Amino acid sequence: MKPHISLRTFSVFLALICSLSFDRCSDKCQVKSKYVYYSPVYMTTAEIKAAVGMKGTRDVKNLGKIYTKDGILFVNEVGEGIHIFDNHDPAQPKSMGFLTIPGNYDLAIQGNTLYADSYIDLVVLDISAIPTIKEVGRVEGLFGVYNNYGFNVDAQKGIVTSWKMEDNISVMQSDCEAQIQSWGGILYDKGIAMPQMSYSTTASTTAIAPNNATGTGGSMARFAIMDHYLYGLDGGNLNVIDITNETKPVAKTPINVGWDAETLFPHEKNLFVGGRAGMYIFDMTTPEQPTLVSQYDHIQSCDPVVVEGDYAYVTLYSGGICHVETNQLEVINIKDLKSPTLVKVYPMSNPHGLGIDHGTLFICDGDDGLKIFDASDPLTISQHSIAHYNNINALDIIPLDHVAMMIGSDGIYQYDYTDLNKVKLLSKIAIVKE
After folding, report:
1. Distance of alpha carbon 290 from alpha carbon 273, whole angstroms
2. Mean pLDDT, to the nearest integer, of 411-427?
3. Is 340 helix (H, G, I), strand (E, B) or coil?
4. What is the pTM assigned to this prediction?
């Protein structure tokens, strides 16, 4: 079976390719290497909308973002929807079903309303009665970046949901209908063609109780809710959506926050944006017009961020679309938001997501597992290890109310850290490999 690459994966794919070196065209296309041809796979908007809804329990196969609210755990199945678990007893989480949302990667919740991306749309769902979750609103075409690369897309066929790899082809100069693009491939026939050398680098990639409170997401989140506004990253743009009327969101003018923006972390009246080139701090006093207060620059690397008190904690990690072999934790003094200052760097193995709760710092250090530290003194964190679980590949975590909910490459782990001297594993929801 020929592999499919998801649309979101393909955006990462292109970012990686852009870092490689390719010959460029001048007046004539000089195409000398063999190419891999990809044809677009479409779904109509009617098909996508019809697929949204609550289904029965299904196996967890491809974990994405994690989110929690009011004792309910929401776990994204990359590109497909959201697993929902009753997590009032973290030692025995119980599946409540699977919410199918084609093209879903991120989510956030306010009150009894769940907001999720579905390819280019924002879907609004009433979750007041979870077994009968229903769509109650939609903002169409909100997320445009991941469906618009200038490829030969036929809008009449619907939305491009993935790209299917066809046969290898040899593209001769006489067949070249366009110049080589900045991402390294060419527009060809009804799809695109990528150099075989670039394909080989990514061949393994697949493409509640009623209240007004919001939930809590992990450090990799691209959605955030602050003061009845939903913010969602769309490439370098920050979408601003007024959700004062929860079921009738109103999109406002998006704000450009930088080409490298990856993650969002709300803290008090500020929004911290983690990017591959740095951390950006925005004043959210005027919700519709986030204002850049300052930015902290670092070497180009993947960069989630969490904040507590006067410090921001940033992990830099290599791999994927990250270009520098740097793996470390950076501690940044943000007491003066206009002048964030690096105060300490701690070497790590391959740190991804992280979380902090009342001075207890949790770091998902890739293949080196979950590391827990007493960070009450940010300058001596490495000297105060609390626990280290090194037999897992740790990716992201939410520490909340003495329970740490963590995503690993092989499942969802939950730890009780009520007693920091006796942190213990409560449960694991395993991924089912196909």
Report:
1. 12
2. 97
3. coil
4. 0.85
